[in-house]
Specification:
CATH class: Alpha Beta
Strand content: 35-45%
Number of helices: 3
Number of domains: 1
Structural class: alpha+beta
Shape: globular
CATH topology: Nucleoside Triphosphate Pyrophosphohydrolase
Radius of gyration: 16 Å
Order of helices and strands: HEEEEHEEEEEEEH
Amino acid sequence: MTQAGGRAGPGEGPQLAALRRTVAGYRPRRAAAHLGFRRAAVLVPVLPRESGVDLLFTARSPELKAHAGQVSFPGGAIDPGESPREAALREAREEVGLEPAHVEVLGELDETPTFVAGFVITPVVGVVQPWAFTAAGRYPWSPSPTEVAALHELPLSGFVGDANLRVEHGEREGVKFELYWYTVEGTVVWGATARIVHQLAALLARPAEGGTQ
C-alpha cells in the first residue's frame, strides 16, 4: 500500500477561496429517476495547500468484487434514514479514517447516474480542516486494508483544462454520452469519478458562473 504524501503546508489560497465560493453557491442538478437504481454518495475530499488544493482519491483493492482496482472517491450506498452528506462522511471514515468532525462540507455537485452499477451518486465536496493535519502537512489517513490498496493526493489544477484529459464518445440505448479519462501524475481517473472531477474543475474554471444554471 502506498501512502499519499503531503505537499507544502496548507493555506487558504485563491484556488480554495474560488472553490469554496462556487461550490457553496451551486445548485446541483438532480438526476432523472431511474427505476431500480440505488442511491449512493461519495465524499470529494479537498486538501488545502499553499500552492492550491489537492483532492484525495482511493485505489480500490483488487480483491473487491465491484470496481476492483479503480481509482475513486470514498463513498458507497446510502443507508435508510441517511442523507447523502451523512453517507459520504460515514464512508470516508470507514475507508480512509477521515473523521467527520475534520471536514467542512461546502455543498453538493450534480447527481451522477452509473448505468452499469445501477447507482445514482451524490458527490459531496468537503474541505479537510488544516488544523487536523500533522506537522508534516498531511492528514493521518488510516485506509481500510480490505477496501483500499493505495491513496493518491492529486492537484486539482491537474484536472483543469485539456492537457491531461482524453474524451471518448459512446452511445447507450440511443443516448450519446462522453467518457472522460484523466492521467494526472501517473494516476488514471475515469468513469463516474472522472465525470465528478470534470464538473468540479469546470466550476473552478468559471467561478462567476458557479451558482447559475
